[in-house]
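Exercise 7b. Backbone tokens:
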């Protein structure tokens, strides 16, 4: 089982996310909620990568959404294909200013702004193995619980994360 210290709580602001990326994430999270998912941002994956948004629904389906704020952002990202091993569906979320054609085939596309989003095209389903699903679900639950605990009692958890 993963050590809880390896599951980031609320990741410290690294200032890499642009205002555009934060707006896309917010709108995408609203869409996911309307589809019956709850999501966590910046969730570290077992592979060591960190997914922008990981969504989980009551059926245990796991979706990963990568946020792309520019063409350059997409071109610089050579790791997105590794996320497939950790989810049932993989999406890219971006603003209406980016052309859909630049995104890889076999992924879903979500067009978003700060206030909402819509599914431009569904991602193909590729069910993950039961062991991976359990690992991701536990990771998701631990991160969610730890983040809530930190909000409720910041001083009570400060030494655990330093």
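Sequence design result:
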């Amino acid at each position: 089982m993963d050590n809880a210290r390896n599951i980031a709580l609320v990741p410290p602001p690294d200032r890499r996310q642009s205002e555009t990326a934060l707006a896309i994430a917010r709108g995408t999270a609203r869409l996911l909620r309307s589809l019956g998912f709850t999501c966590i941002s910046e969730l570290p994956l077992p592979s060591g990568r960190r997914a922008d948004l990981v969504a989980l629904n009551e059926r245990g389906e796991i979706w990963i959404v990568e946020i792309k704020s520019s063409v350059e952002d997409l071109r610089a990202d050579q790791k997105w294909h590794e996320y497939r091993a950790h989810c049932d569906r993989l999406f890219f979320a971006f603003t209406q200013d980016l052309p859909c054609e630049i995104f890889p085939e076999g992924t879903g596309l979500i067009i978003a702004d700060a206030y909402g989003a819509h599914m431009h095209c569904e991602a193909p389903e590729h069910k993950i193995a039961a062991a991976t699903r359990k690992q991701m679900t536990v990771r998701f639950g631990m991160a969610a619980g730890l983040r809530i605990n930190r909000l409720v009692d910041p001083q009570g958890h400060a030494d655990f994360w330093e």
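Instructor comment: The mean pLDDT is 88. The longest helix spans residues 130-152.
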